[in-house]
């Protein structure tokens, strides 16, 4: 069993300061949060960019500032979002891939996302995959429902995506796959045999599903993008607090936590 890769999803596009006062928004705040999470045990930080007023953006220069702020403070894999925010164009969402981060997300289909629709046309998926390959960026295939997993396998079969692929099973989004142990076991049964995988449980699904992932040999994602609470009714004080809890659970279960360099080896990231 590989060492455990912990991803910290620091900000997202939906959470506001009104909901979570500790949400990092500016590049400097995101850099500080990334360093705190790296010190706690995270080897990947998943980042969304915001304007100073908190509005989500895919502006390449804001992402450049974020990547600089993170690299000045810690050695961690920066994984940028190409999901952006609901309603952004595919061209807008793809722009920061030109910065050549080590990883970027690649959503494998459309999904009802609460009261919105997160739209990913097959031609856009193709364009995103080609650009990531061109820039030497490792895609993390974002799977919100079982149909997206079937799509990813078709793309792998036709050579549009490289194997072994890395999947992020995002579970518990209203409109997507439910965040239950039974649903996770089904999704795992459908993964390609050479795949690596992370689970991102939304809200109350985060702790049980990440604990299952530790036991089953997968990897985990925690952080304010997916869950702002430490326990029911108690807001987390930082992203790092959520990372530290996973490290404690992994230690109790005798699953060593990967360093960023070990995570790069597990994920077959290209040398820079």
Q: What gap, in angstroms, lies between the N and C termini?
A: 26 Å
Q: Would you identify the CATH architecture?
A: Alpha-Beta Barrel
Number of domains: 1
Structural classification: alpha/beta
Q: What's the helix-strand series? A: EHEEEHEHEEEHEHEHEHEEEHH
Backbone CA Rg: 17 Å
The unreliable regions are none
Biggest β-sheet: strands ordered side by side in the sheet: 1-2-5-6-9-10-11-12
> CATH fold name, please?
TIM Barrel
Using the coordinates above, name the CATH class.
Alpha Beta
Largest sheet: 8 strands, parallel, barrel
Provide the CATH superfamily: Aldolase class I
Got a strand count? 14
Measured as a percent range, the helix fraction is 25-40%
Q: What fraction of residues sit in β-strands?
A: 15-25%
Total count of helical runs of at least 4 residues: 9
What's the average pLDDT? 95
- Basic shape: globular
Question: What descriptors fit this protein?
Answer:
37% helix; TIM Barrel; globular; alpha/beta; 272 residues; 8-stranded parallel β-barrel; 20% strand; 9 helices
Short description:
With 272 residues, this protein is an alpha/beta fold. It has helices spanning 27-40, 60-73, 90-94, 122-135, 146-157, 181-189, 206-216, 239-252, 260-266, and strands at 6-9, 44-47, 49-50, 56-57, 77-80, 103-107, 111-113, 116-118, 138-143, 166-171, 196-201, 219-222, 229-231, 234-235. Helix 1 runs parallel beside helix 2 (60-73) and helix 1 runs parallel beside helix 8 (239-252).
């Amino acid at each position: 069993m590989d060492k455990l890769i912990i991803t910290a999803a620091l900000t997202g596009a939906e959470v506001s300061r009104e909901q979570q006062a500790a949400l990092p928004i500016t590049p400097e705040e995101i850099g500080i949060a990334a360093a705190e999470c790296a010190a706690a045990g995270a080897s990947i930080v998943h980042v969304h960019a915001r304007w100073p007023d908190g509005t989500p953006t895919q502006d390449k220069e804001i992402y450049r500032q974020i990547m600089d702020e993170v690299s000045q403070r810690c050695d961690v894999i920066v994984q940028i979002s190409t999901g952006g925010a609901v309603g952004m164009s595919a061209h807008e969402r793809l722009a920061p891939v030109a910065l050549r981060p080590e990883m970027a997300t690649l959503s494998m289909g459309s999904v009802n996302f609460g009261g919105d629709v997160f739209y990913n046309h097959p031609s856009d998926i193709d364009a995103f995959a080609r650009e990531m390959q061109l820039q030497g960026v490792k895609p993390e295939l974002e799977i919100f429902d079982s149909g997206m997993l079937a799509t990813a396998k078709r793309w792998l079969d036709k050579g549009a995506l490289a194997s072994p692929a890395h999947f992020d099973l995002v579970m518990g989004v209203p409109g997507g796959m439910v965040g239950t142990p039974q649903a996770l076991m089904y999704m795992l049964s459908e993964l390609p045999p050479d795949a690596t995988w992370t689970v991102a449980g939304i809200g109350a699904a985060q702790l049980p599903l990440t604990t299952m992932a530790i036991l089953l040999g997968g990897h985990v994602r925690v952080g304010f993008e997916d869950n702002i609470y430490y326990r029911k009714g108690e807001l987390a004080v930082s992203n790092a607090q959520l990372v530290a809890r996973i490290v404690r659970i992994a230690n109790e279960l005798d699953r060593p936590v990967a360093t960023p360099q070990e995570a790069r080896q597990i994920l077959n990231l290209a040398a820079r």
